[in-house]
């Protein structure tokens, strides 16, 4: 593993985490562990108001840090945004959010890292270039490769507009055919715009491009 992407195993009160050795290399989708509500400040469950005693123990949700009884904080759910190695205890509300995010990590992120091919137009240019677009392995950059090469830092992207076709007044299905991306170049306050258009020829694989655009739409949320 290269030095920039190297990871280390750390133990926290919440569990084991596999995190980047250097904070600058962390994923933009990551979350910091929350501070736990001190035991002395939570004599009762923060969900059902059950009083804690020798029988009713208190548990902290690993995502929000609040204090709950076992009934209100019994689920152990994967939490990839905090880099936990194993599923961790979470309250019911946080568990629902984490379950949705796990699907994003298992499906959409993999699609983005595998990449897809688009015609890319920079700014107001009338010329487009065929490029392979993918998310970098550390999830920090959108990488575009063709005759030219671009690396756009995810945190510098300000807007993502997905372009679709096929809408009908009766509510027919739409299909993603492209994307307009606006981002800031480091050192500049001005926005740069790129337009991505799925190729019409068979070799560009429309289905793959549509799946990649759908995943990018998830990222923008």
Note the topology.
Blueprint: E1 7-12, E2 15-20, E3 58-60, E4 67-69, E5 75-77, E6 88-90, H1 92-114, E7 116-122, E8 128-135, E9 141-145, E10 149-153, E11 157-165, E12 175-184, E13 191-198, H2 206-220
Antiparallel strand pairs: 1-2, 3-4, 5-6, 7-8, 7-13, 8-9, 9-10, 11-12, 12-13
Helix pairs in contact: 1-2
Can you give a write-up of this model?
With 221 residues, the protein is α+β, with helices and mostly antiparallel strands. The protein has two domains: 7-110, Herpes Virus-1; 115-167 and 175-220, PH-domain like (Roll). It has helices at residues 92-114, 206-220; strands at residues 7-12, 15-20, 58-60, 67-69, 75-77, 88-90, 116-122, 128-135, 141-145, 149-153, 157-165, 175-184, 191-198. Helix 1 (92-114) crosses helix 2 (206-220). The protein is elongated and about 70 Å long. The model has no long low-confidence stretch (mean pLDDT 87).
Question: What is the H-and-E element order?
Answer: EEEEEEHEEEEEEEH
What overall form do the CA principal axes indicate? elongated
Rg over C-alpha atoms, rounded to the nearest angstrom: 22 Å
Please identify the structural class as seen in this structure. alpha+beta
Task: Write down the overall mean pLDDT.
Answer: 87
Spatial strand sequence of the major β-sheet = 10-9-8-7-13-12-11
Biggest sheet, in brief? 7 strands, antiparallel
Q: Which architecture name of the largest domain does CATH use? A: 2-Layer Sandwich
């Amino acid at each position: 593993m290269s030095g920039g992407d190297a990871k280390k195993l750390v133990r926290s009160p919440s569990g084991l985490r596999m995190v980047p050795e250097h904070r600058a290399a962390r994923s933009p989708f990551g979350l910091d562990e929350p501070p736990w509500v001190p035991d002395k400040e939570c004599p009762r469950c923060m969900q059902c108001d059950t009083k804690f005693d020798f029988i009713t123990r208190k548990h902290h949700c690993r995502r929000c840090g609040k204090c709950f009884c076992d009934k209100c904080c019994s689920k152990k759910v994967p939490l990839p945004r905090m880099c936990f190695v194993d599923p961790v205890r979470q309250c019911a509300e946080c568990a629902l959010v984490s379950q949705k995010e796990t699907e994003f990590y298992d499906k959409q992120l993999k699609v983005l890292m595998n990449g897809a091919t688009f015609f890319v137009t920079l700014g107001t240019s009338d010329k487009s270039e065929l490029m392979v677009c993918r998310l970098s392995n550390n999830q920090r950059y959108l990488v575009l490769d063709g005759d030219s090469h671009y690396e756009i830092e995810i945190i510098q992207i300000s807007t993502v507009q997905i372009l679709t076709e096929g809408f009908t007044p009766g509510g027919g299905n739409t299909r993603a055919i492209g994307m307009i991306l606006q981002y800031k170049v480091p050192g500049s306050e001005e926005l740069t715009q790129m337009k991505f258009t799925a190729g019409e020829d068979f070799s560009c694989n429309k289905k793959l491009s549509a799946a990649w655009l759908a995943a990018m739409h998830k990222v923008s949320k």
